[in-house]
From TrEMBL:
GO biological process: nucleotide metabolic process
Domain of life: Eukaryota
Residue span of region Disordered: 44-74
Biased composition (Low complexity): 44-56
Intervals of motif Histidine triad motif: 167-171
Xref: InterPro entries: Histidine_triad_CS, Histidine_triad_HIT, HIT-like, HIT-like_sf
Lineage, opening ranks: Eukaryota, Fungi, Dikarya, Ascomycota, Pezizomycotina
Protein name: HIT domain-containing protein
UniProt feature, compositional bias: Polar residues: 62-71
A molecular-function term among this protein's GO annotations: catalytic activity
Domain HIT positions: 63-182
One Pfam family linked to the record: HIT
Active site: H169 (tele-amp-histidine intermediate)
Length: 247
């Protein structure tokens, strides 16, 4: 990011605060308890001695979760941070698990997004959708149209299209069946397509707890995609190096 948008744009502030980090950093060992330490092999620090060998220098996972991040601009309950894409919990969710998927680069509208970044957003939206729904509702039976997996993916462009933050982002909004419909053939008013409804501030403690579960599920999903589809979603981290002061 080459501009100073992080001083005025809340999503740029998040991008400025959180460097890229491989999702599988948050994998837990098999059969581990919830209190066991995370498997941080993927986040091994580079050697401190000078060497001519190409090394990987990946920030600590504490950069996602450390208490000091709860103060100041840019704090977010982060799920994903790559070179081009961020995913984090909405601070005023319509439903539990409401996630925003945003570009790291400051682009105001979808038409401003370059092809490479657009491809990466398209890559992550189905992954994030599966992760959110599986975390909230468990596994879905294959092809079950009437399952508990119901959600909207919404993207707005411009003030008259209900865009509130002038930075490209997609809403992934779970639709839990916890309220009756308004009438036969009608959905509840807060569950309409474009994401309108009652919104409340996200509780910080609950947000971090949920974000932790989502990060773990995302790590497992990235491994599943590599195993079953033969696609390495972490390929960009293969020659990863963070320069201090730059993201």
């Amino acid at each position: 990011m080459t501009s100073d948008h992080h001083h005025t744009c809340p999503f740029c502030a998040i991008a400025h605060k959180y460097p890229p980090l491989p999702p599988t950093t948050f994998l837990r060992p098999k059969n581990s308890s919830h209190d066991d330490h995370l498997n941080l092999a993927a986040a091994a620090a580079a050697p401190t001695t000078t060497t001519t060998t190409t090394t990987t220098d990946i920030p600590s996972p504490d950069s996602f979760t450390e208490p000091s991040n709860s103060d100041g601009p840019g704090h977010a309950h982060l799920l994903l941070s790559t070179k081009h894409v961020l995913a984090f919990l909405d601070i005023m969710p319509l439903t539990r698990g409401h996630v925003l998927v945003a570009t790291r680069e400051h682009c105001e509208r979808l038409g401003d997004v370059g092809v490479a970044v657009g491809r990466e957003i398209g890559q992550w939206l189905p992954v994030i959708s599966r992760v959110v729904m599986r975390t909230l509702f468990g596994e879905e039976e294959q092809g079950d149209f009437n399952s508990l997996w119901n959600w909207n993916v919404v993207q707005n462009n411009g003030r008259f299209a209900a865009q509130q933050v002038p930075h490209v982002h997609f809403h992934v909004i779970p639709r839990p069946p916890d309220r009756p419909a308004e009438g036969k053939g009608k959905a509840h008013l807060s569950y309409v397509m474009f994401g309108r409804g009652q919104r409340e501030d996200l509780d910080d403690e609950e947000g971090e707890s949920l974000a932790g579960m989502l990060r773990e599920e995302l790590a497992r999903e990235v491994e599943r995609v590599k195993r079953e589809e033969g696609l390495d979603l972490e390929g960009e981290f293969g020659k990863f190096r963070v320069e201090k002061g730059k993201l």
